[in-house]
Amino acid sequence: MGQDEGYLLDNQQAEAGTRFDALSALFDASTFRHFEGVGIDEGWHCWEAGAGGPAVAAWLARRVGPRGRVLATDIDLSWTRAATTEGIGGVEVLRHDVALDEPPAGPFDLIHARLLLVHVTDRDTVLRSVARALRPGGWLLIEDADPALQPLICPDEYGPEQELANRLRRGFRALLRERGADLAYGRKLPRLLRQAGLTQVEADAYFPITSPQCGVLEAATVHQVRDKLLAAGLATDEEIERHLANIAAGRLDLATSPMISAWGRRPLADES
């Protein structure tokens, strides 16, 4: 993922790979469904911005074939490089920070970013810049969470274990806000895509209510932000240990924030 200097979930931490794997298991099927919906085909040029792990770039490479091109970018390529080292042809990996750098050389038939712009301070400017890298007729698919739309990690808060999980989740969201994350960003995407000049804009939302991978994701996230929660006085060490034990015991039905997927098309010259 791309990020500003104060990004909360550092890709260089050991838990980052676990988070990427869990996010892939939870959301890749929805992402690939949207790729299919815009008609991705052989020979397309695609940019996977803020790639994080290798799974999405590898899927795109298989779909566009040898005549296509897939560019996977991130400011930390530690996990993205697996798309090339695992023998997936057609993936070019490039260090790139969407918050600071101009878009890479295009134009692109498809540009995709998932859980990227919500963490970028000047996210609206970046979105417009990314949209300009599309070829006429190309598609932009932006997927970002909207934690304010469904703020509970345990929507069924029926006991103290669930209440603790939701309280720690509120602490995590407070840390995100301090670092400039817009916790209501997902719902704004359709409007922002239209303002960027795109047409045929649509959007939907998806999130699991419970899944073993939600537990994997939550445990990895808590481990990553543990020191920051403690430093900010948002949790005690005992509370964090108790929450992690509850996750490990399988006693929690853990959800995620809604993932808003919004997509739009750059008009052809004769459509503008």
Can you tag this structure with a few keywords?
272 residues; alpha/beta; Rossmann fold; seven-stranded mixed beta sheet; 8 helices; 38% helix; disordered N terminus
Look at the helices and sheets and give the structural class: alpha/beta
Give the helices and strands as they follow along the chain. HEHEHEEHEHHEHHE
* CATH level-four homologous superfamily name of the domain at 15-151 and 181-209 and 257-267: Vaccinia Virus protein VP39
Strand order of the largest sheet: 3-2-1-4-5-7-6
Main sheet characteristics:
7 strands, mixed
**CATH class designation of the domain at 15-151 and 181-209 and 257-267:** Alpha Beta
Radius of gyration, in Å, reads 19 Å
Bulk shape? elongated
Q: How far apart are the first and last residues' alpha carbons, in Å?
A: 32 Å
Mean pLDDT: 90
Number of E-type strands: 7
